[in-house]
Amino acid sequence: MATGRVFTVPVVDLVLPAPMRLVIARQCSSSAAAIERDVGLGFGWTHALAWEIEERRRGLALWRGDGTREPIPSLEPGQSIRLSPARSIAREDGCYVLRDEHGHLPGAG
């Protein structure tokens, strides 16, 4: 099915090999979600560090580094929810913390 969406394949700009490996990749998309926000490279562009939580009236929106948006329920202080078998998000000390299945932050190993 043709959608008219235009995109680039992800391009890796930086890799820092270390115990806490860091990979920075970017890509561009004309999808409706991608063109709503500018993460520093212009509208439609996204990169691996562009994770964001947006508080909305009826819940939260989790923006991933690939430019996709996932609606999630509001969290009370101290509450956490599992987003997938390998990832959870918690509200702690007035902020949101994203962790992998080992309790680490994304990109931290």
Quick take:
Pfam families: DUF6531. The protein is an all-beta fold and 109 residues long.
General description of the model:
Pfam families: DUF6531 (PF20148). Residues 1-69 form the DUF6531 domain. This is DUF6531 domain-containing protein. This protein is mostly beta strands and 109 residues long. It has one domain. The chain has no helices and nine strands. The strands form three sheets. A three-stranded antiparallel sheet has the order 1-2-3, with no helix packed on it. A three-stranded antiparallel sheet has the order 4-5-6, with no helix packed on it.
How do the helices and strands line up, and which of them pair or pack?
Blueprint: E1 11-16, E2 22-28, E3 45-47, E4 52-56, E5 59-63, E6 69-72, E7 80-84, E8 87-92, E9 95-100
Antiparallel strand pairs: 1-2, 2-3, 4-5, 5-6, 7-8, 8-9
Protein name: DUF6531 domain-containing protein
Organism: Sorangium cellulosum So0157-2
Domain DUF6531: 1-69
Strand order of the largest sheet: 1-2-3
What does the overall shape look like?
globular
Strand content: 35-45%
Mean pLDDT: 80
Main pleated-sheet profile: 3 strands, antiparallel
Helix content: under 10%
The SSE string, one letter per element, is EEEEEEEEE
If you compute it from the alpha carbons, what radius of gyration comes out, rounded to the nearest whole angstrom?
15 Å
Structure summary, number of beta strands: 9
Residue windows where pLDDT falls under 50 for at least 5 positions = none
Q: Figure out the total of helices.
A: 0
Structural class: mainly beta
Cα(first) to Cα(last) distance is 38 Å
Number of domains: 1
